[in-house]
Amino acid sequence: MSGTTVIAARRVVTPTGERACRVEVTEGIITAIDAFGPAPVELPDDQVLLPGLVVSHVHVNEPGRTEWEGFATATAAAAAGGVTTIVDMPLNSIPATVDVPALTAKRASTAGKLAVDVAFWGGAIPGNAGELAPLHEAGVVGFKCFLLPSGVDEFPPLDPAGLATAMTAIAAFDGLLIAHAEDEHVIDAQPAAQGRAYRDFLASRPPEAETTAIAALLETARRTGCRTHIVHLSSAEALPLIAAAKAEGLPVTVETCPHYLTFEAETIADGATDFKCCPPIRGAANREQLWAALLDDTIDLVVSDHSPCTIEAKRLDSGDFGAAWGGIASLQLGLPAVWTGASARGATLLQVAHWMAAAPAALTGLTDRGTIEVGRQADFAVFAPDEPFTVEIAALRHRNPVSPYAGRELRGVVHETYLRGEPISGTPGRMITPAR
After folding, report:
1. 28 SS3 class
2. Which of 278, 284, 183, 297 is nearest to 239 (CA)?
3. pLDDT tens-digit series, residues 342-388
4. pLDDT digits over 226-250, tens only?
5. CA–CA separation, 259 vs 257, rounded Å?
6. At what angle do helices 160-172 and 129-138 cross, to 10 degrees?
7. From CA 408, how far away is CA 352, in angstroms rounded?
């Protein structure tokens, strides 16, 4: 963009708290924050200027599985939800992002399609330890691995030896490993998920699967010194392990997701496969422990884990939890979903902005964004926190109209999203890399 603009609001969420002010933007960068007064753009009193969200866990699936999702639809959904930056996961595209040629192919597939900025994760799989440093140099933000089968053949899991090899290699250049932490042996020991009963699916992936895998992951982090991040934590039983690791000084962080903070197993109907995700949505008491851990900083951030699929793959017709794809598409709804729960528990928009913008930006090294302060990229979400709405499938922008939020009333409406100081329209997004 070019030129200068000024946005005034009586509620602007800055790193030090809410304030009434004017935010000046020049060439896409915040250049001044000063006293509230007249401005070319002035928000109504019921709207808040938030930093644009950074969602560091998104499965776009392009190239190769664009019938599930693609960059055009995923980034349109992001923009509609106040998200200005997404970081794409490596496993659902074909080829998977496990070497530099695959990263090059993925970057090429974004041409003319990005409504918001996009960065990329690389993948750590058996046999590609030699590819990790080149991917790091090529600009991935870190490396995703699975500790059990991922669900796609192109992205096999790491066994304990492979995990240690990958983490040793990543630690050598001070990179970041992120892990889907469920233990295959624990899950294999349970009755397999099949049929329409949600309780049977839940029993097939017990909390022990997460705690066992997380304990092994933390021990490998202890031995290798590798910076380690646990994705989509669902089980509160793992929280003492994580808290102890942090107290010990291990370089470990953890995220949870809006669906784990919103839904509860007790109210998921049999056959409702739109709620299926892995690890699963657990009970109401577990959910409240996740909220408590988020509020006391044991959990560091909240991200979508936008994991869409075709309507057919969700098996909504049969309602078979064993056959359905596990994943929830919620990129557009993360902010109102989290704010609905956070405000009910006494949390503030400042906390939400930290969990959903500043912390994911810091995790991924995208330190030019994520907060409203001088010198940062001028990415904003204009949010009416007290405005309720009912989720309508037809209003969602991701490719396939499936969502467990359908018909749910949420609190908070995104009225506008700004990227580099301009309201998003068309395809202004860019491919980005972390600051190193």
Report:
1. coil
2. 297
3. 999 999 999 999 999 999 999 999 999 999 999 999 999 999 999 99
4. 999 999 999 999 999 999 999 999 9
5. 6
6. 40
7. 20
Q: Quick count: other Cβ atoms within 10 Å of Cβ 293?
A: 21
What is the residue-wise DSSP string for 226-274? -EEEE-S---GGGHHHHHHHHHHT--EEEEE-HHHHH--GGGPPTT-GG
CB 369 within 8 A of CB 84: yes
Indicate whether this model's pTM tops 0.90: yes
CA distance 182 to 126: 17
Q: How far apart are CA 385 and CA 374, in angstroms?
A: 24
Token reading at 254: 């953890």
The structure tokens listed for 362 are: 């810091």
Q: What is the mean pLDDT of residues 88-106?
A: 97
Instruction: In whole angstroms, give the CA distance from residue 153 to residue 239.
Output: 31
Please state, in angstroms and rounded to a whole number, the distance separating the CA atoms of residues 326 and 318.
15
* Beta-carbon count within 10 A of 275 CB: 21
Question: What is the 8-class DSSP label of residue 354?
Answer: I
Cα separation, 149 vs 157, in Å, equals: 5
What is the rounded distance in angstroms from the CA atom of residue 272 to the CA atom of residue 315? 9
Q: Please state, in angstroms and rounded to a whole number, the distance separating the CA atoms of residues 74 and 307.
A: 10
Identify the burial level of 244 via C-beta atoms within 10 angstroms of its C-beta, where 0-12 means exposed, 13-18 middle and 19 or more buried: exposed
DSSP run (H or E) holding 218: helix 207-224
d(CA 391, CA 252): 35
Q: How confident is the model at residue 201 (pLDDT cuts 50, 70, 90)?
A: very high
Q: What is the pLDDT of residue 427?
A: 86
At 426, the pLDDT band (50, 70, 90 cuts) reads confident
The two tokens of residue 299 are: 């959990």
What are the CA-CA distances from residue 272 to residues 123, 192, 195, 403, 408 (Å)?
31, 18, 11, 10, 14
What is d(CA 290, CA 298) in angstroms, rounded to the nearest whole number?
Answer: 9
Host H or E run for residue 21: strand 17-26
List the beta bridge partners of residue 390: 409
Quote the pLDDT of residue 38: 95
Angle at 34 between CA 32 and CA 35, to 5 degrees: 165
Q: Are strands 227-230 and 301-302 parallel, antiparallel or unpaired?
A: unpaired
- What is the DSSP code (8-state) at residue 405? T
Q: Give the DSSP per-residue string, 169-185.
A: HHHHTT-EEEEE---HH
Please name the amino acid found at residue 212.
Answer: T
